[in-house]
Amino acid sequence: MKDTVDINCDMGEAFGRWRIGDTSDEQLFPHISSANIAAGFHAGDPNLIDETVKLAMQYGVAIGAHPGFNDLQGFGRRKIAGSSREFVNDIIYQVGALREFCRRHNTTIQHVKPHGALYMELAANADFSAAFVEYMRTAAPNMPIFCMGISETYRTAKLLGQPIVREFYADRDYDDSGSIVFTRDAGKPDPKAIARKVVRACVEGRVKTVRGTDITVDFESICFHSDTLGALDIVGEMREALTAEGIRIAPVSQILESHADQVLERQ
Asked: Is 21 left (phi over 0), alpha (psi -120 to 50) or beta?
């Protein structure tokens, strides 16, 4: 059973006057511990990035870079053709943009979490994952990558020594392999059912797949999406259920530090 877990959410996912979902970021920030801030390619613009960084600081939420495919129209959830070199350069460009806004406000990036179809491409593509992790080893060797435990991203980062945070997806279904079932529209799920699913994953380390199979899951962070309809009810039910089980919510930086301390104590 977990005693502490991170709750992360994708934030700043708008552009100019365009908005998505039925919940504002400011409503969600008090309930999360890590924010994945869209960096301009699938969503986000300079003014919104600046505003979202300030909101994260206001609510004491850790900041993550959330780069995506260059696909505003498709919200970064469409597969784009290209080379690993092109995609890694797109990631570098977006992380650099968010890093400068963080520097402006005297704060730092906690982690990097790719978005949508880019996340799924990294999960399946060994060459792309290797190029991405090699960039991270050079630019930010102590910065965690958020990914699925069943992914090339995880395997490559572990092999090369890059810090990793495995995610559990509250508002997405799982297949029997342990991968999420990728969707461009999750509809409006039942917040109480999601809360039960999350608590079971934390307490038992199990989740039921779309085929009805129970599989094992391990993770450090719970993800839900700000564009999922009813996002505020979802995170409210999750937090209440987790708190009732005595599970603390904290940024992954604190969780990883705790794990490191435990390793040192065992040594």
From this structure: left
Averaged pLDDT of the chain? 93
CATH class for the region spanning 4-266 = alpha beta
* Contacts for 153 with CB less than 8 Å, ≥ 6 apart: 122, 123, 129, 132, 133, 145, 147, 164
pLDDT tens track for 95-110: 999 999 999 999 999 9
**Domain locations in the chain?**
4-266
Look at residue 212 and tell me whether its pLDDT is greater than 60.
Answer: yes
The percentage of residues in the chain with a pLDDT greater than 70, rounded to a whole number, is 95
Q: Report DSSP letters for the chain, one per residue.
A: --SEEEEEEEE---BTTB--SSS-HHHHGGG-SEEEEE-SSSS--HHHHHHHHHHHHHTT-EEEEE---S-TTTTT-S-----HHHHHHHHHHHHHHHHHHHHHTT----EE---HHHHHHHHH-HHHHHHHHHHHHHH-TTSPEEE-SSSHHHHHHHHHT--EEEEEETTS-B-TTS-B---S------HHHHHHHHHHHHHHSEEE-TTS-EEE---SEEEEETTSTTHHHHHHHHHHHHHHTTPEE--HHHHHHHHHHHHHHH-
Residue with tokens 């400011």: 26
